[in-house]
Amino acid sequence: GAVVSQHPSWVICKSGTSVKIECRSLDFQATTMFWYRQFPKQSLMLMATSNEGSKATYEQGVEKDKFLINHASLTLSTLTVTSAHPEDSSFYICSARDHRGFHEQYFGPGTRLTVT
Amino acid sequence: AQSVTQPDIHITVSEGASLELRCNYSYGATPYLFWYVQSPGQGLQLLLKYFSGDTLVQGIKGFEAEFKRSQSSFNLRKPSVHWSDAAEYFCAVGGELGSSASKIIFGSGTRLSIRP
C-alpha cells in the first residue's frame, strides 16, 4: 500500500516550452502533496506544498508563476514548468501525505527533466 | 523552523563492518524524524521513522536509529553493512501536523560507499 506514481519518469523538452509532471497517490487519498527538486548529488529541496482544492504554498525563492502547481483531486497533483530553461533541468520528486492525518510522506519515483 | 544537519558528506566502510551515520536536528518541539535511502537515479525509500515512544527505532534492511533529545541527534546504525547498502542516505525532520512546520525538511545527505 501507500504507492505514489509520477508521470513521466523522464522528459526532454526544448527551451521556452512548458512541461507537465503528474503525481498520483494510487491507493490512498492525499490531502497534501509536496514537490521537491533535487540537483545531481544534492539533497531534496522543498519547492511547494499543495493542499487539495486550494492554492499551493511556495517556499521562499521558488517562482510560483514558473512552477505552476495544481492539486485538483485527492489523488492527483500536477507541476507545470512553464517557459523552461536549461537551468530548470533537474530531478523532480513528489510526495503525498495520507488524508487520515498520518505524518509520513510517501514519495514518488521522481521525474528527470532535461531542457535543451 | 526545523532544520537538519548531516555532517558527513561521504563515508566509506568495509563490507561487514559496522556503520553509523550522523544526524542532528533543530526544532523547538518534539520532532518527527526519518531516515530515507536513495539509490542512484531512484526515488526515496523510508528506512525508519520516529514519532514517539521508544527512542531506539528498528527499520528495514537491518537498520536502526536512536533518538537522543539531549543531543538533538538521530543517528542511523547498522551492525554489518552489505555491498548493496551503498547509496545516499538522508535524514529528515518534520514538525507538528497541522502546523506551519509540518513539512518534512531534508538534510544534505551522506553518500555511503562500501569497500569490498
Overview in brief:
The complex is a heterodimer of chains A (116) and B (116). Chain A has 116 residues and is mainly β.
Key features of this structure:
heterodimer, A: 116 residues, mainly beta, seven-stranded mixed beta sheet, four-stranded antiparallel beta sheet, 11 strands, globular, B: 116 residues, six-stranded mixed beta sheet
Verbal overview:
By secondary structure, chain A is mainly beta. Chain A is 0% helix and 55% strand. Chain A has no helices and eleven strands. Chain A has strands at 4-7, 10-13, 19-25, 30-38, 44-51, 57-58, 67-73, 76-81, 90-98, 105-107, 111-115. In chain A, strands 2, 4, 5, 6, 9, 10 and 11 form a seven-stranded mixed beta sheet that branches. A four-stranded antiparallel beta sheet of chain A has the order 1-3-8-7, with no helix packed on it. Chain A starts with a strand and ends with a strand. The model of chain A has no long low-confidence stretch (mean pLDDT 91). With 116 residues, chain B is mainly beta. In chain B, 0% of the residues lie in helices and 50% in strands. Chain B contains no helices and twelve strands. Chain B has strands spanning 3-5, 10-14, 19-21, 24-26, 32-38, 44-50, 56-58, 64-68, 73-78, 87-94, 105-106, 110-115. In chain B, strands 2, 5, 6, 10, 11 and 12 form a six-stranded mixed beta sheet that branches. A four-stranded antiparallel beta sheet of chain B has the order 3-9-8-7, with no helix packed on it. In chain B, strand 7 and strand 8 (64-68) form a beta hairpin. Chain B is globular, with a radius of gyration of 14 Å. The model of chain B has no long low-confidence stretch (mean pLDDT 91).
